Amino acid sequence: QGEGRMHGYAKMPSKTSSDIELETVITATDERDQTQSTGVKGFSFEDTRLMDGNWLHEPNSNDILMFMRILAVCHTAIPEVDEDTGKCTYEAESPDEVAFLVAAGEFGFEFSKRTQSSVFISERHSGQPVEREYKVLNVLDFTSKRKRMSVVVRDEKGQILLLCKGADSIIFDRLSKNGKTYLEATSKHLNGYGEAGLRTLALSYRKVDETEYSAWNSEFHKAKTSVGADRDEMLEKVSDMMEKELILVGATAVEDKLQKGVPQCIDNLAQAGLKIWVLTGDKMETAINIGYACSLLRQGMKQIFIALKTEEEISQDPEAAARESILMQILNASQMVKLEKD
């Protein structure tokens, strides 16, 4: 919890387990009583400022409300209700999505139903539960290149909203001037989460007026229904037009723990003389932390970092800039290693 803003931390015992543990990450400047326990299996988040609707009394309650609604609405999961207990379980593309929905439900924003055109959220944070319907107008899918996913929805008041979650490097570049209120604090927390080996996402949104949406949706429909080789490129370009001028409301952090025996296995392979490579889409800080956790990296090892800078990625010829930058970094690293050996 950072300065009244919820930073979720979902803990999963292994990469193959469906069990989920949700725990508190305390990074608050206000250390009021945080001893309440929900008693819900798989959920042990303890912060009285957020539980039982207490977040309504926080000075930035509107931002917390939007954070929770993004968790509950921005996904492609399917709910399954147990007829005997009435409890919801979820079928989702990843355990992370399930973790977010479990957390949202325990904070009073339960994703309860999906139809062909809408999602329904049962909100219970001020009095009796209220079922709210969000009409899903568009889904902008996650891809490894986009590093984000968005949904365009219409709420019960008729307001069109873009809800977006993705890699912080992507979201931060798309923030509006008025959407950076929490940028500094969130960046600090994300760096800490990355160093702890957690997988992070930034959450954001913006309001869209009818005129803009109508014009954009026409272009999106053309791209969606095209059958040419450039369909994906067209979709990405049109999605970029909508995913801009965002307002940052917070971030999530997920721990995907190693299975038992992984560090010992990698250590044995290394001692046998095998060269081991790991391919990951995580942030550098997260990858390094996991490298130490699985015994791939050890204290005293020489580490060489090769990375692209933002200005290279957005240059007129990003591929050429990337090749030149990587080659230069490799040459410099080789010379440094050679000098140390000499």
UniProtKB/TrEMBL annotation:
<dbReference type="GO" id="GO:0005886">
    <property type="term" value="C:plasma membrane"/>
</dbReference>
<dbReference type="InterPro" id="IPR023299">
    <property type="entry name" value="ATPase_P-typ_cyto_dom_N"/>
</dbReference>
<dbReference type="GO" id="GO:0045332">
    <property type="term" value="P:phospholipid translocation"/>
</dbReference>
<dbReference type="InterPro" id="IPR036412">
    <property type="entry name" value="HAD-like_sf"/>
</dbReference>
<dbReference type="GO" id="GO:0000166">
    <property type="term" value="F:nucleotide binding"/>
</dbReference>
<dbReference type="InterPro" id="IPR023214">
    <property type="entry name" value="HAD_sf"/>
</dbReference>
<protein>
    <submittedName>
        <fullName>Putative phospholipid-transporting ATPase 7</fullName>
    </submittedName>
</protein>
<dbReference type="GO" id="GO:0140326">
    <property type="term" value="F:ATPase-coupled intramembrane lipid transporter activity"/>
</dbReference>
<dbReference type="Pfam" id="PF13246">
    <property type="entry name" value="Cation_ATPase"/>
</dbReference>
